Amino acid sequence: MAFAYTVSVIDAAGAVDDAALRALTEAAAAQWSQYIHGFGSIDIQVTVTATTRANARAATTNPIGTSGSLTLYETSPATELQTGRDLNGAAPDILINVDPGFLAFFSLDPGSAPPTGKADGLGLMMHEIGHGLGFVSLRNPDTGAFAGAASTWDAALLETANGLFFGGATARAVHGGPVAVTTLRNGEQYSHIGNSLNEEIGWDLMNGVATVTGRRYPISDLDLAMLKDIGLPVISGVNGDPLLDPFFYAATYPAVTAARLSAVDHYNQWGWRDGLDPSAAFSTLGYRAANSDVAAAGLNPLLHFEQFGWREGRDAVAWFDTTLYLARNPDVAAIGVDPLVHYLSFGRFEGRAAYSAIGAPDSFTHGAFDAEYYLLANPDVARLALAAGGDPAARAYAQYQASGWREGRDPNSVFKVKDYLAANPDVQAAGLDPLLHYDTYGWREGRDPAAGFDTRAYLAAYADVADAGVDPLLHYLQYGALEGRSTFGDGVIA
């Protein structure tokens, strides 16, 4: 569960099965909670009352800025999910009203598809909760005009000669273009999508066209993309895997969306073989090159990482070290979950740090050159190394020596090539490989490899390292980081 919630039902006349309605609404909230991180608890109140159909709204809205001349508001649940601030205190956050006669047309069983002649009750309550989360316009429903205020949903809408469209970047990528907003004068205008059942989006959970009996209305990637565009902390698509991110995939590889292929199917069938990345948190080429056994076996690298790799201390991307994250977060290690998935789903929102990748201690065969980091950080080098065959780590070092450092590529997660050369004009003038210079002479002369690592301070603080006469940067990469030793970074390269 990514956010907490409570559900209460007010049914003064005893017109419906309150326990069933509560369970249905809890199941609907649980569906949204799978995909959205949240602080606090979203309190949902369902009132059974004569209201013709069903409607919902956030109990409160929160001013967050301006959009042109309009004051811009987000829903109080959106504020609470992002910040933990509960603007309503003990009062409900989302208010849902449902007519008992209307509810009679819906199946109240959340566990199975609605039977013939009944509509999807789970979909109904997910739809209404969606309005409470952010699918809401502050336009006048009759004129479409604003009265000094707009919602975050409104701010993402585009008025064109062809109609009104949701234009958020994530939704455009997932949908393959702007998303038509309901403008039919059917009471659903401006806060829904679609204007016809002939459109694909006319069958979406948040459609404003119709609810057809006998079928489910699940949350879609498009629904999540729109909420992501208006600021909600969406952590994954409906596949539930933040490492296979349909929003990233659609934006990065638009041809896949144009072909109406899902990110999951495309990546698992073709994408990884073509070197495509499933998300910003996984380097397909880097992982295969840094793990030649995976490449040689012809394995899907993402599946390997998720099933085995993280448990073996392998890293998926240059900016995240699985072993260090688990070492710094023993509570995460204790529950035995994928550290990168934990970070993306929870840790980043909780203020936990990510640590750049460092290869295994025995992988450092050329001073402080870290082949794993280099291949993860440079997918073009990884692609060439895989194509050339042989040992990718050796090819990575050869590329670094031949041209990489001249191109400003960093040899490990700490050393900064450009900064070292700028701070040491003698090294630059001599045309020397800066890492080789540091490993051979620089550290002995008290030079720093980066503003984030103080050579003298490291040796002064750790007598065992100084007494052993070893390169302090290499020691840190092989042992010190995992031992919790400090880099003493002072922002200055001495």
UniProtKB/TrEMBL annotation:
GO MF entries: metallopeptidase activity
Record-linked SUPFAM superfamilies: Metalloproteases ('zincins'), catalytic domain
InterPro entries per UniProt: MetalloPept_cat_dom_sf (IPR024079)
Matches recorded under Gene3D superfamilies: Collagenase (Catalytic Domain)
Domain of life: Bacteria
Name used for this protein in its record: Uncharacterized protein
Organism, as annotated: Roseicella frigidaeris
Phylogenetic classification of the source organism: Bacteria, Pseudomonadati, Pseudomonadota, Alphaproteobacteria, Acetobacterales
